[in-house]
Design a protein that fits this description.
This protein is mostly helical and about 300 residues long. It is built from 20 helices and no strands. It folds into four domains: about 70 residues, no CATH class; about 80 residues, Annexin V, domain 1 (Orthogonal Bundle); about 40 residues; about 90 residues, Orthogonal Bundle (Annexin V, domain 1), CATH 1.10.220.30. Helix 1 crosses helix 3 and helix 11 packs across helix 13. The radius of gyration is 30 Å and the shape is elongated.
Length: about 300
């Protein structure tokens, strides 16, 4: 069995890397290998003796994120191991909690093991009471987890971390920032997010609604005079698409508010159409309505609080 890391050549180290993570993943880590070098590595893998766990671990630490293809030929010095969980150092408390949210206990424990004691306590304090004990048990038995699993988890968590909002992208302004984000979602996702927010954080939902505007808000809450001017500013084709699916009484009221010439030219959209087309048309009207909010014609907070409007 191979127990001495320092006796290995660069080629043997890469061969061990290939044997641990598989050739496909290894090729994505070790860039630019020629076909000749790949053949040498495959041959070395077949010829090598069994490798100890500690040697495998040392090699994975060294090469997982930083090994370049030419290094296995001319590696003269050890620059120190490169840690698979190094990316955790760049995450703040909220991001760390988001990272482990909905993850299984072994994964949470594996991430916690890489953190400072204070950071670990903040994660465990926010964990579901039903799984706290299991997480702690897993934290005490990480040595039983295969090295391949550790590497796989590190890679998946690193990728997941790239989708976490950065501090500069998620200010503490609260409702307005969230309203701006969900305002760019498609209608189904927007409705789902708002429903979840209303159930889980009613106070934040109320704050978001002070800044969030939907097509339904325009129909139900905007004063008639403002709606008349808004719908009159929209191309008839887009307006007809936006009104698709509304009750006939609502559509008739909107059309009757248009100038006589436009009323005569208005043609409802017949037959089934893709929901995304209707959503797109309605979003265009919402954009126009937001301009009225920006120039002070409409105050969303008055609308959301049920304040009386005088035309």
């Amino acid at each position: 069995m191979i127990n001495d890391y320092h006796m290995l050549s660069g080629l043997q180290k890469v061969a061990i890397l290939f044997s641990v993570v598989g050739e496909s993943l290894a090729l994505s880590l070790v860039k630019g290998l020629s076909k000749t070098n790949i053949r040498k590595i495959r041959s070395t893998v077949r010829e090598m003796d069994t490798v100890s766990y500690l040697v495998k671990k040392r090699i994975m630490e060294e090469f997982y994120f930083g090994f370049l293809s030419e290094q296995f030929e001319t590696q003269d010095k050890d620059d120190g191991p490169i840690q698979p969980f190094e990316f955790l150092k760049d995450l703040n408390e909220e991001q760390l909690n988001s990272l482990v949210d909905n993850e299984d206990s072994p994964v949470v424990a594996m991430v916690m093991a890489q953190l400072e004691p204070e950071q670990r306590m903040k994660i465990i304090d926010k964990a579901d009471p039903k799984v706290k004990g299991q997480i702690l048990l897993e934290l005490g038995s990480l040595e039983d987890i295969p090295l391949e699993a550790v590497i796989e988890v590190a890679a998946r968590m690193k990728e997941k971390a790239t989708y976490l909002p950065r501090t500069t992208e998620f200010s503490r302004g609260g409702g307005k920032e969230i309203a701006d984000i969900i305002g760019n979602m498609d209608s189904a996702e927007e409705e789902k997010y708002l429903g979840t927010l209303q159930n889980e954080n009613p106070e934040l939902y109320k704050e978001v609604k002070k800044h969030h505007l939907t097509f339904d808000d325009i129909i139900e809450k905007f004063p008639d005079g403002v709606k008349r001017d808004l719908f009159n500013s929209v191309e008839l084709d887009s307006l007809a698409m936006a009104l698709k699916g509304l009750e006939k009484e609502v559509v008739d009221t909107i059309v009757e508010s248009l100038p006589g010439k436009k009323q005569a030219m208005f043609e409802p959209v017949e037959g089934a159409v893709a929901k995304r087309e209707v959503d797109t048309a309605r979003k265009q009207i919402v954009v126009g309505a937001k301009k009225l909010v920006d120039d002070g014609t409409i105050n969303l907070q008055d609308l959301s609080s049920g304040g009386e409007m005088v035309e």
